[in-house]
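sorry for the late reply, my laptop died twice this morning and i had to redo everyting from scratch. anyway the thing you sent over, i finally got around to it. pasting the sequence first so we're on the same page, its 75 residues, then the predicted structure underneath. double check i copied it right bc i was rushing
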Amino acid sequence: MKQINVRLSLAENVKNFVNLVNRYPYDMDLRAGRHVVDAKSILGIFSLDLSKPISLEVYSDDCEDLMKDLESFLI
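ok and here's the structure:
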């Protein structure tokens, strides 16, 4: 499992993030405090507090292609 922090402060960022992660077959969750949502769910993401960094958990150890594409969302 890989875990990174991402920032999704704008609605446009959320849309671009969801479009990007849906291209990959990995299971992913976003965690903000004690709340966990599916990273591929736009409605789930909007239920989180987007003013703070969010932890992305990717349930794969071999996901360097995804990590490279997510560089613009990293903190």
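The helical segments are 11-21, 42-46, 64-69.
thats about all i looked at so far, will dig more tmrw
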